[in-house]
Amino acid sequence: MSKKGFFDKLESTETNAALKEQQISEPKKAQPAVKPKHLNAMPTVFFNAHKKGKNGGHTSLDFSQYIYEAVREKLQRDGLL
Question: 70 near 79, Cβ under 8 Å?
């Protein structure tokens, strides 16, 4: 359609005609299965105790994985998982 034809049609509309804008929605992105989280502060005694336990063979987990496991266990114990 030419511009002239478009404006001719536009002139034939009423002044109170409702205008509708067509929204083009973007596809929703999938939520990631993990979320980065940084702890504000962790007492050094926790790091030292973990290091002692890891060196003593009580755990093979690094400190971050140890925290994840502790949170998971607590959530299960509280009935939230």
Answer: no
For the chain, give the mean pLDDT.
85
pLDDT digits (tens, 9 = 90+) for 20-48: 777 777 777 888 788 888 888 889 999 99
- Do 47 and 63 touch, CB atoms closer than 8 A? yes
Name 53's Cβ contacts closer than 8 Å, sequence gap at least 6.
59
Distance, CA of 6 to CA of 8 (rounded, Å): 5
Other CB atoms within 10 Å distance of the CB of residue 65: 11
Identity of residue 32: P
Name, in order, each residue with C-beta under 8 angstroms of 66's C-beta and a sequence gap of 6 or more: 50, 59
